[in-house]
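Known limitations

Structure tokens in this collection are predictions and should be treated as such. Users comparing against experimental data should check residue numbering before alignment. To illustrate the layout, the record for Major facilitator superfamily (MFS) profile domain-containing protein is reproduced below. The input appears on top and the generated tokens appear beneath it.
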Amino acid sequence: MLTKASKPDRLAIFTQLAVSAVGCSSLLAYVLDLMDGTGGLAGWRWIFIIEALITIVLAVLTYFYFPDFPDQNHFLTEEQTKLVLERLNEDRGDALPDPITFEKVKQHLLDWKIWTYGMSPFQPRVILPWASSPSVDAQAFFLPIILMGMGWSKTAALLLSVPPYGPTIIISVVLSYFSDKYKHQASFMVGGTIVCIVGLSLTAFAKQDAV
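Generated tokens:
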């Protein structure tokens, strides 16, 4: 179990698996689209069926394998579990779940930092991967459509949606490493936000496609 100080670079690697999956989804969609007509189904239907089945199977396995809290795990020895709990308690004192109370909920609901960050449309997942970003998700989901609007064919748009995720993964892991090393996050988050704003502004308002 990770302490606060050791989370950034580990979470970067873990989360970039999800980013890689998003990047590969376009490639998978291209392959599945080649099944167009198989079984009397259109290619886009096969994309929905196959990707949904993969998601459902993994979700079921995850539900039974991953514990809700460290003390409920079934893959560590008693000694290892004790070590994990002690480490978490020394770091932040919340190894065991505590009851939810109105005061605790109120405390978090009144925290302006949570609302400010949560409502921001420019949260920099590209730079700090643990930040959920509507803007980044939107670009990931609609990039093939954007490319098709630029004149590329459907096949080319799906394939061209994959390469941008390579630099994304590298940058995220490197910056998260330095964030972890120097125990500092704010500057990286601000920098990532600026990058998102500039990039999305160019995408939305640039007069020419080649920027």
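For this record: DSSP finds nine helices and no strands in the chain. Confidence is low (pLDDT under 50) at residues 126-132. Please report discrepancies through the issue tracker.
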